[in-house]
Structures are given as structure tokens and as C-alpha cells.
Write a structure and sequence with these properties.
With 132 residues, the chain is of the alpha+beta class. The chain has a single domain, classed as Glycoprotein, Type 4 Pilin, CATH 3.30.700. The protein has 1 helix and 3 strands; from the N terminus they run αβββ. A 3-stranded antiparallel sheet has the order 1-2-3, with helices on one face. A hairpin with a 7-residue loop joins strand 1 and strand 2. The chain is rod-shaped, with a radius of gyration of 25 Å. The termini are far apart.
Length: 132
């Protein structure tokens, strides 16, 4: 073949390169989303742990009683180590859900997860902590 006709890449070669790049970026996007979701769950658990410290502080000053559902988490805010403005939210921006008493448990503290619906089907499903 004559050298003057062989100057660039063929359309097939360009399409193969583009297909490879699209495949790699799709795999990366899926993995990054999973890492992001796990990070959000860990952040929410940390925030719930801080709120639990506030609840424990409240109970220590009120002879072992925890705030009722009606009093809500606002009652425990002065007892938290970190002085946040208002009730902490989960990593998705939803307000933490508090119920006391909760069935046979003393209280239930939870996050509704990424979808913001109780019992949702999202990957980062509801996160609930109960004290029995």
C-alpha cells in the first residue's frame, strides 16, 4: 500500500477506542457510586452515635429516663458534645427519626436512608439503632 494513503486512523479503530473508554468509565461510575453510598452510611452512623451520646447525657440527668417521642431529639441537644444547630440530619439531609418508647425498646433512633422513605428499597436502606 502506498504511504500517502496511510496517514490517520480508520473509523473502526476510532470506534474501538471509544468503546473501550466508555466501558472503562461505566465500570468506574458503578464502583464510585457504591463507595459514595458506603461513605454516606458511615457518616450517618457517626451522626447517630453523636445523637446517642446526647440521649445518654439526657438520661443521666433525668434518672434514667429518655425523652419521649413528643419531646423529640431537641431535648437531648444540650447534652451533645458537638454543639450543632438543631437536630442532626443524616448524610442525605433527612432528619433523624426518634421514637420513645418503641415497642419493647427504650428508644429507636434511625435514618430513612437515601430515598427518605421508611422501609425503602434503596441501596443505603434504613439505618436503625434501638436501646432495649
Amino acid at each position: 500500500m502506498d504511504r500517502r494513503y496511510r496517514r490517520g486512523m480508520t473509523l473502526v479503530e476510532i470506534m474501538v477506542v471509544v468503546a473501550i473508554l466508555v466501558s472503562i468509565s461505566a465500570v468506574l461510575a458503578v464502583n464510585i457510586k457504591a463507595i459514595w453510598d458506603r461513605q454516606k452510611v458511615q457518616e450517618t452512623k457517626l451522626r447517630m452515635g453523636l445523637m446517642e451520646q446526647g440521649l445518654q447525657g439526657y438520661a443521666a440527668l433525668h434518672r434514667g429516663r429518655y425523652p419521649t417521642t413528643e419531646q423529640g431529639l431537641e431535648a437531648a441537644l444540650p447534652h451533645m458534645h458537638s454543639r450543632e444547630e438543631g437536630v442532626p440530619t443524616d448524610a442525605w439531609g433527612n432528619t433523624l427519626v426518634y421514637r420513645s418508647p418503641y415497642g419493647d425498646a427504650v428508644y429507636s433512633l434511625g435514618s430513612l436512608g437515601a430515598d427518605g422513605l421508611e422501609g425503602g428499597v434503596d441501596l443505603a436502606a434504613d439505618i436503625v439503632v434501638t436501646l432495649r
